[in-house]
From TrEMBL:
The lineage of its organism: Bacteria, Bacillati, Bacillota, Bacilli, Bacillales. NCBIfam families: ABCF_Lsa_all (NF000167), ribo_prot_ABC_F (NF000355). CDD domains: ABCF_EF-3. It comes from the Bacteria. Gene3D superfamilies: P-loop containing nucleotide triphosphate hydrolases (3.40.50.300). One of its GO terms (molecular function) is ATP binding. Residues 263-290 form a coiled coil. Keywords: ATP-binding, Coiled coil, Nucleotide-binding. Pfam families: ABC_tran. This is Lsa family ABC-F type ribosomal protection protein. Residues 4-213, 310-499 form the ABC transporter domain. InterPro entries: AAA+_ATPase (IPR003593), ABC_transporter-like_ATP-bd (IPR003439), ABC_transporter-like_CS (IPR017871), ABCF_ATPase (IPR051309), P-loop_NTPase (IPR027417).
C-alpha cells in the first residue's frame, strides 16, 4: 500500500486564461479501485496527463508508483497480438497472457492474429490484460467502455472488480457500480474522494445538495428578517437620541442620561443584528458551490400523418458479400423508441445507415414512408473541426437555439470561441446531440449518442426523451439508459462467430 498525494495543484493550458485546477489537494491509496467522474471538460484526462508528467504545473504530486495509461498507443497494429502484448509487458510469460485474456472471455487464438484484425472490443480487452500484468504500476484507464457492447462491459467490469490499483474514467453508471470501491469526483468547486461505488456517492452527493439548498433558503429568510430588524432598531435609536433635544413634557425636561442610555442600547441591538446578518451571509457564501444544475432541454418532434414509418422484412447486412447477422424484421411506428441490441460487429450501425438511405449491402426488403424527416446523430466525431460558427452555418441550424442548448449542457461561453478539434470527446458528442435537438423530425436515429457524455448530461437527455416522447431508433450500450428510454428491443444475432 502506498499513497498518491496531490498538494496545491494548479494548472492551466498555455493558450487559456482559466485554470483547469486551482490549489487542489487530496490523496488516494494505490490499492483502491477508483472511479473518476465529472462533467465533460472539467479536466479528467488532463489530470491523467499531469500524473504521466506530460505538462508542467505548480504544486506537488508525490507518488511511489509508476503510472501507465489505457488506451495504450500501439505503434504497429500490423504486428501479431502476442508481439504487441510482449512489448507492453516484456516480463510476463505466455501462460500469464493466456490466463488474463481467458478471464476476459477472449479466445487464445487471437494471440496469433494481426492486432488490427481484432474487433475494437477485443483490442480493449487484450490491452487491459497486458497492462495489468505490469507489476508495481498504477493504471489510468480512460473510457474503456466506448467500444464495448453490454455483454463486453459486464465482462470487463467483473475483471476490474478483481483488480486493484487503478483510476477509471467512465460515465456508465452500471459499469462503475460493478468494479470500483472509491469515487474521485471533479465537482464545480473542488475535487473530493469518497468510499463506495457510484450509486452510494450519488446518494450522498444528492443529500448534500438538498441540505445546502434547504439551508440556503433558510439563511436567505434569516438575512431578510435580520435586515428589517436592524433597520428598525437603528431607526428607533435615532428617534430616541433626537428626543434629547425635544420639548418639555408636563413641564419637565427630558432626562438626557436616560434617553442616551436607551439610544445606546438600541444602537447596540442594531449592531448585534448586523453582526448576525454578516455571519449568515458568510455561511451562505459557502453553500451551493458544487450544485450541478441541469436545465431541462426541449425537443420538437413532428407527428407523421400515418402510424407506420419504416418496415424492415428479413433484413441481413452484408460486408464484402458476407452476411453478418441473422435476418431481422421489425416495424417503426409512431411513438416507438427502439433499441438495436447486439454484439459489436453484428450490423447495428449499418441498419441505422440503411434506414437513412445509405448504400448498404443487404438482403431482404425495407420500406421507408415518403416524406419522412429524419434527424441523425452519428457515432464518429473525428471529422469535427473548425469554428463553431461554420458548423452552425454548414448545418443550417438556428444559432441562438443551438448555443442555448449547449449552454444547458454545461458549455461555457469560452468554448464557443475555440476550434472544435480542441473539444473533449464528450463536448464533440454534445455538439451532435444539440444539432439534432434543433431539428424538427418525424424520426430520430442516434448511434451510440452517449459515448464520452458525462453522467449528468445522460440523465438530462433521459428526462428530455421521457418528456417529449420522440419516435426513435438508437444504439446505446449504457444499460441504464436503455432501460429508462427504450420501449422495444430488437436484438441482432451474428450468423457465425465474430472475431
Amino acid at each position: 500500500m502506498a499513497m498518491i498525494q496531490v498538494q496545491d495543484l494548479t494548472f492551466a493550458y498555455p493558450s487559456s486564461f482559466d485554470n483547469i485546477f486551482e490549489k487542489v489537494s487530496f490523496q488516494i491509496d494505490t490499492d483502491w479501485k477508483l472511479g473518476f467522474i465529472g462533467r465533460n471538460g472539467r479536466g479528467k484526462t488532463t489530470f491523467f496527463n499531469l500524473l504521466l508528467g506530460k505538462y508542467e504545473y505548480s504544486g506537488k504530486i508525490t507518488s511511489s508508483v509508476e503510472f501507465n495509461y489505457f488506451p495504450y498507443p500501439v505503434s504497429d497494429p500490423n504486428k501479431y497480438t502476442y508481439e504487441i502484448l510482449e512489448e507492453i509487458c516484456p516480463q510476463a510469460e505466455d501462460w500469464e497472457f493466456l490466463r488474463e485474456i481467458a478471464y476476459l472471455n477472449v479466445d487464445a487464438e487471437i494471440m496469433y492474429r494481426p492486432f488490427h484484425l481484432l474487433s475494437n472490443g477485443e483490442q480493449t480487452k487484450v490491452l487491459l490484460a497486458a497492462l495489468f500484468l505490469n507489476e508495481g504500476q498504477f493504471l489510468l484507464i480512460d473510457e474503456p467502455t466506448n467500444h464495448l457492447d453490454i455483454e463486453g462491459r459486464k465482462i470487463v467490469s467483473n475483471y476490474l472488480q478483481k483488480k486493484k490499483g487503478f483510476i477509471l474514467i467512465s460515465h456508465d453508471r452500471n459499469f462503475l457500480d460493478g468494479c470500483v470501491d472509491h469515487i474521485l469526483s471533479i465537482n464545480r468547486a473542488n475535487i473530493e474522494v469518497q468510499s463506495g461505488n457510484y450509486s452510494s456517492w450519488k446518494l450522498n452527493f444528492d443529500r448534500q445538495q438538498e441540505y445546502e439548498v434547504a439551508k440556503n433558503e433558510r439563511l436567505q429568510k434569516d438575512i431578510g428578517r435580520l435586515k428589517q430588524a436592524a433597520k428598525r432598531s437603528e431607526g428607533w435609536s435615532h428617534k430616541v437620541e433626537s428626543s434629547k433635544n425635544g420639548t418639555k413634557i408636563a413641564g419637565l425636561k427630558p432626562d438626557k442620561g436616560y434617553v442616551g442610555h436607551k439610544a445606546a442600547k438600541m444602537m447596540k441591538r442594531a449592531k448585534t443584528l448586523e453582526s448576525r446578518q454578516q455571519k449568515a451571509l458568510e455561511e451562505k457564501s459557502k453553500l451551493l458551490k458544487n450544485v450541478e444544475k441541469t436545465e431541462p432541454l426541449k425537443l420538437r418532434p413532428i407527428i407523421y400523418h400515418s402510424n407506420d414509418l419504416v418496415t424492415l422484412t428479413d433484413v441481413s447486412i452484408q460486408y464484402d458479400g458476407q452476411i453478418v447477422n441473422q435476418p431481422i424484421s421489425f416495424k417503426i411506428e409512431q411513438g416507438d423508441r427502439i433499441v438495436l441490441n447486439g454484439k459489436n460487429g453484428s450490423g447495428k450501425s449499418s441498419i441505422l445507415k440503411l434506414i437513412l438511405g445509405n448504400a448498404i449491402q443487404h438482403t431482404g426488403s425495407m420500406h421507408v414512408s415518403s416524406g419522412l424527416i429524419i434527424s441523425y446523430v452519428q457515432q464518429d466525431t473525428s471529422h469535427l473541426k473548425g469554428q463553431l460558427s461554420d458548423f452552425i452555418q454548414d448545418n443550417g441550424i438556428d444559432e441562438t437555439l443551438f448555443k442555448s442548448i449547449l449552454r444547458k449542457m454545461d458549455f461555457d461561453r469560452i468554448q464557443f470561441e475555440k476550434d472544435i478539434s480542441h473539444y473533449s470527446g464528450g463536448q464533440k458528442k454534445k455538439l451532435l446531440i444539440a444539432k439534432s435537438l434543433c431539428e424538427q423530425a418525424h424520426l430520430y436515429i442516434w448511434d451510440e449518442p452517449l459515448n464520452f457524455i458525462d453522467i449528468y448530461s445522460r440523465i438530462q437527455i433521459e428526462e428530455l426523451i421521457q418528456k417529449f416522447n420522440p419516435t426513435m431508433v438508437f444504439v446505446e450500450h449504457d444499460q441504464a439508459f436503455q432501460e429508462k428510454i427504450g420501449t422495444k428491443i430488437i436484438s441482432l444475432y451474428p450468423v457465425h462467430k465474430q472475431f
